[in-house]
Write a structure and sequence with these properties.
Arc Repressor Mutant, subunit A; six-stranded antiparallel beta sheet; Jelly Rolls; DNA-binding; 10 strands; RmlC-like_jellyroll; 300 residues; alpha+beta; Helix-turn-helix domain-containing protein; transcription regulation; HTH_AraC
Length: 300
């Protein structure tokens, strides 16, 4: 769809649509995910777009009627409840049914995380369709995106809010696409492996906090000895060895960075209230003290 000027609602003047509304984001962020525009339209019979390419992602959800979407050399009949996704630089086309033209809503977005995010939800040019029955959660989110962008006096705040609604929309589409979720493989792992992966994430994120493997074991429902044994079997190291590695690598990043943190501050930032103990662990791991490492990094 073609965007309209920011904050301007267009209705019923598009010759290809009996109903047409689109709202632009006047200040999309140059970040990981940002809405460009969103709209709603009921097309006339046989109305089509393409073959063409876009340089952004464009998601359509069909509210009623029928049509056909084509991408990556494959053609997909779509009707009420179906969502189809256009990917950047992929040749696509879509056309409304002659007898029952579709009524759909759409949102366009971009961002450096968009491709990876869609792939993690199981979507790609080879898998661009998801089928759903209950439309209200989706149409409500599309409506919120458009409402957020409409004649806002604070476009930067509108961009943030619209991006939040977009993330929830993609989450809902991911739930509909659960059979193809890239991370769904986690759900079919044996329980202990799934728990170990969660433990790995937890240690990777919470390394700066006081961490007790005993407490971690209890929270996951396993005895410490059993968890440690399985953790090492799956990762190759014990939980404490893994935590030490995470902390030391983060310490190296801080010592390498263009900051003025003291050794005490670096130690505290990676979970060591005792700077002397931190320095001993650092020397044992890398063969030099934190101060020596910083000096070598800055002079090298």
């Amino acid at each position: 769809m073609s965007p309209s000027p920011a904050g301007v609602r267009s209705n019923s003047r598009n010759p290809d649509h009996s109903k047409f509304t689109v709202m632009n984001n006047s200040q999309p962020a140059q970040g990981e995910l940002s809405v460009m525009f969103s709209g709603e339209g009921k097309t006339v019979s046989g109305h089509g777009i393409g073959p063409a390419v876009h340089n952004y992602y464009l998601v359509h959800t069909v509210i009623s009627g029928r049509g056909t979407f084509e991408i990556d050399g494959h053609r997909y009949p779509c009707s009420r409840g179906d969502t189809f996704i256009i990917f950047p630089d992929e040749l696509f086309s879509y056309v409304a049914d002659d007898d029952d033209p579709w009524h759909y809503v759409w949102v366009a977005f971009k961002g450096h995380a968009a491709g990876h995010l869609l792939l993690s939800l199981g979507f790609s040019a080879a898998n661009p369709i998801v089928h759903g029955r209950e439309l209200r959660p989706l149409t409500s989110l599309y409506r919120k995106i458009r409402g957020t962008l409409e004649q806002t006096p604070f476009p930067e705040l509108a961009d943030l809010e619209a991006g939040g609604h977009l993330r929830v929309l993609l989450k809902e589409l991911g739930l509909l696409n659960e059979g193809k979720l890239a991370f769904n493989s986690l759900a079919i792992l044996p329980d202990i492996e799934r728990q170990i992966k969660r433990a790995v994430r937890w240690l990777s994120y919470q390394y700066a906090q006081p961490i007790s493997i005993e407490k971690l074991s209890r929270s996951l429902g396993y005895h410490r000895t059993h968890l440690s044994k399985m953790f090492k079997q799956i990762t190759g190291v014990s939980p404490m060895q893994f935590l030490l590695k995470v902390r030391m690598e983060r310490a190296k990043e801080l010592l390498n960075g263009q900051n003025h943190l003291s050794i005490d501050q670096v130690a505290s930032s990676v979970g060591y209230p005792d700077a002397l103990y931190f320095s001993k662990q650092f020397r044992k791991t890398f063969g030099c003290s934190p101060s020596e490492y910083r000096s070598q990094a800055r002079n090298g």
